[in-house]
Design brief:
The chain is α+β, with helices and mostly antiparallel strands and 492 residues long. The protein is 35% helix and 27% strand. Strand 22, helix 13 and strand 23 form a beta-alpha-beta unit. The two termini are 31 Å apart.
Length: 492
């Protein structure tokens, strides 16, 4: 199988786009800016979804589902949120088509079928969910309300890229209501930590936990917590956000409860979400010029077995051994595929599974049967070893854990080597243009300076790290007093 991938060094953006398509993850659809997630790509998303869903339920959350359409007046109720998403909204104005009398075989909007009120196709679901919560919450006994939904949303993006930015994408969005501010803040922080745990232990992606500046904050939130990851090209990617909403949505939708003393209070809210852009993060963090490199914890196929044979008799003997091996792997909950296609040669299969990022490949030929050995290849390092048949399942079980750890360590090493402290704007520009990555710099705390740096460099403040040292310094641009360093980067 010929991969013909452009290399990352030649054109990182083109390499990414080619890899997503050639590895059968996704493709552009007939609708501008929308994608078709193909079975192999969706299988990875399903594994992500399953792990996150488990984590949400372990932290007390339940799944529900809310409508795709939001009445315009309802969407407008929380002004900051409405203003923040207004430019990305798709709107439904009519509910019926009819035959066009001037163009036989064509349809037109029926002017008599105009909606009494226009409907917004949800870009996010706070409005519809909080309007629903008004009927669900009467007393402190109804709280906390811990709800998540798995859904699609539409944001009318002008410049789209598969997984990273599409007009429609899949995600989960949590929406919770609490009796006290402290509970809501605790929930917001907790979900940020859940996302970080998932990114690091399943995606093998190290992340920085922090809070967004007021400018970068979610529209309608009082605080936005985030996890930020660094891709191989030195650009940052926001991998998840969790928002403390204060009482903004409760007041907009009159969501009140009677406290233990019988007095009416507004509830405190949070919302949090991750989307299919995590697929883009997975591709860009680990993959190489040969194709995908998938961490074993999220790989749909962890082990592929490829038979090498010339005769039907050899194929039959190899298949017996392979099928016995598969049964043992299944008992260990290791996902395995036996590529027994007779229409393709071993070299084609090796290239295909390498492109698709399967962590471990086992090759079995007649000599392996004679010697009681298997050839084991690692996708991440492209190294091979010959292993005795007797200990192969234990060996591969340990190897999968090692690959998961090694991928994280490699990404962490890259991140650590691309996080640079600077103390002047000249240094800032030099690092941004020649090295990339996170730039730890002092900032005077004003939105004006933040915007000016973005205008001059296209770098944004990714986050104010939770673990930063509050050491006074001077802003890299203005020289004014700063309370501590923040992380800048160019970002997706």
């Amino acid at each position: 199988m010929s991969k013909n991938l452009i290399t990352r060094a030649e054109d990182y953006s083109k390499w990414y786009n080619e890899l997503v398509v050639k590895a059968d993850l996704a493709e552009n659809s007939g609708v501008r800016g929308c994608m078709v997630i193909k079975p192999y790509g969706y299988a990875i998303w399903e594994k992500m979804q399953a792990e996150l869903d488990r984590m949400f339920k372990e932290t007390g959350h339940s799944n529900a589902y809310f409508p795709l359409f939001v009445p315009k007046s309802m969407f407008e109720a929380e002004e900051k949120n409405a203003e923040g998403f207004a430019k990305e909204c798709a709107i439904v104005t009519h509910y019926r088509l009819k035959n066009d009398p001037d163009k036989p075989g064509k349809l037109m909007v029926d002017p008599n079928a105009k909606l009494e009120e226009e409907l917004i196709v949800r870009p996010t679901s706070e409005a519809i969910i909080w309007s629903t919560y008004k009927g669900w919450v009467q007393s402190y006994r109804d709280l906390p309300l811990l709800i998540n939904q798995w859904a699609n949303v539409v944001r009318w993006e002008m410049r789209t890229r598969l997984f990273l930015r599409t007009a429609e994408f899949l995600w989960q969005e949590g929406h919770t209501a609490h009796a006290t501010k402290a509970e809501a803040v605790e929930e917001s922080e907790k979900m940020m930590h859940v996302y970080a745990d998932f990114a690091e232990n399943f995606m093998a992606i190290p992340v920085v936990k922090g809070i967004k500046t007021e400018t970068e904050r979610f529209a309608g939130a009082e605080e936005t917590y985030c996890i930020e990851a660094l891709m191989q090209d030195g650009k940052a990617l926001q991998a998840g956000t969790s928002h403390f909403l204060g009482q903004n949505f409760a007041k907009a939708f009159e969501v009140k409860f009677a406290n233990a003393e019988g007095n009416q209070e507004y509830v405190w809210g949070t919302s949090w979400g991750v989307s299919t852009r995590l697929m883009g993060a997975l591709v860009m963090t680990h993959s190489d010029d040969n194709g995908l490199v998938l961490p074993p914890n999220l790989a749909p196929i962890q082990v592929v077995i490829v038979p090498i044979f010339k005769t039907d008799e050899e194929f039959e003997k190899i298949s017996i051994v392979a099928n016995n091996l598969i049964e043992v792997f299944k008992k260990r909950s290791i996902s395995v595929k036996y590529d027994n296609r007779t229409t393709q040669k071993p070299g084609f299969k090796f290239a295909e599974w390498e492109l698709k990022g399967v962590p471990v490949r086992i090759a079995i030929g007649p000599k392996d049967l004679e010697n009681g050995t298997f050839e084991i290849a690692r996708r991440d390092t492209l190294s091979k070893e010959v292993i005795s048949k007797e200990g192969v399942v234990d060996y591969i079980s340990d190897l999968l854990e090692q690959i998961q750890k090694d991928l994280f360590d490699k990404a962490l090493n890259y991140r650590n080597n691309h996080c640079t402290e600077v103390n002047s704007f000249e240094e800032f520009i030099e690092i941004l243009e020649n090295k990339g990555g996170f730039i730890a710099a002092h900032w005077d705390g004003t939105a004006e300076t933040e915007e000016k740096i973005k205008e001059l460099t296209k770098a944004t403040i990714r986050c104010i790290p939770l673990n930063r040292e509050n050491i006074e310094g001077k802003c890299v641009l203005t020289g004014e007093k700063s309370q501590g360093r923040v992380l800048f980067a160019k970002a997706y």
